[in-house]
Amino acid sequence: MVEGAYTPRWIGRLPLAILPLGALAVGNRLPAWAFMWALAFAIYAGLKWESWWRARTQIPHAEAWRSAAYLVAWPGMDAESFLHAGPPVPLPGLLAWIGAVSETLLGVILLWVVARRIPEGQPLVRGWVGMAGLILLLHFGAFKIAALFWQRLGVDARPIMDAPLGSTSLSEFWGRRWNLGFHQVAYNMIFAPLHKRLGVGAAGFLVFVVSGLVHDLVISLPARGGYGLPTTYFVVQGVGAALERSVFGKKLGLRRGLRGWLFTAAFTAGPAFWLFHPPFVLRVILPFMQAIHAL
């Protein structure tokens, strides 16, 4: 690509418009769990392409192998960092590898061993344990191993999960520690273009609302139930983030120390059943676990 060449923005956003529509078109023909994965992957692939297309204008001479690796072999969304051949990144230490492998194995154990030992009369518990295993296996385990692999090759690939349990504020949890891939695209597509016009607080709250709507699409639609609960969950997160930034929140110390940690835990974990609601667990997660022989 020639530096300064015109690159139509619509080409970057076209897959994000087309791929989810394709998943929706075939949704009724798929099992609920397959519909969920089809929607999730369609949205992911659309966002992935958009982030790469955007980065092309910032790094016009990126090596072809970096682009190919970013598109097909890296789950993160920070295309500029991945494509930029800057100074060598620090090599990951042995403890980082041990941690990533351990979390992967723990996820496998929860998903394929622990969940099946829970009595069939407690399906929600079975499903929640399975989800915990799946998140550990993918987001904390396999994705971190991928990050360490690329770091070993000198690529600036930051893990998409960064010790979220250590967060002492909701802003830190959602902005710097949990699912940094989605945070990156939300910042680029929503917060950055709107925060000067709407203000930081309103633009940040809008990010939570959009996140809720996306989760409702991927979670509630395949489950055919629980509509609005994921959106409510993220609205609550937005309210909590505004509260901790308020004068009242600052006086209470809701963004630091033990109080901040407890406040963050209460807001993120307390209403989590709205995010992963019973229809989703019963109609999507449990059948998926059966399909992969975890039950």
What does this structure look like?
With 295 residues, the chain is an all-alpha fold. The chain has three domains: 9-83, no CATH class; 87-155; 162-295, no CATH class. Helices cover 74% and strands 0% of the residues. Mean pLDDT is 93; it is low at 1-5.
What series of H and E elements makes up the topology? HHHHHHHHHHHHHH
Global geometry: globular
What distance separates the N and C termini? Answer: 50 Å
Portion of residues in beta strands equals under 5%
Key attributes of the depicted protein:
295 residues, mainly alpha, 14 helices, 74% helix, 0% strand, disordered N terminus
Topology:
Blueprint lengths: L8 H18 L5 H27 L5 H10 L5 H5 L10 H24 L5 H30 L17 H8 L2 H19 L1 H24 L5 H17 L1 H6 L4 H13 L2 H4 L2 H14 L4
Helix pairs in contact: 1-2, 2-9, 2-14, 5-6, 6-14, 8-9, 9-10, 9-14, 10-12
Short structural summary:
With 295 residues, this protein is an all-alpha fold.
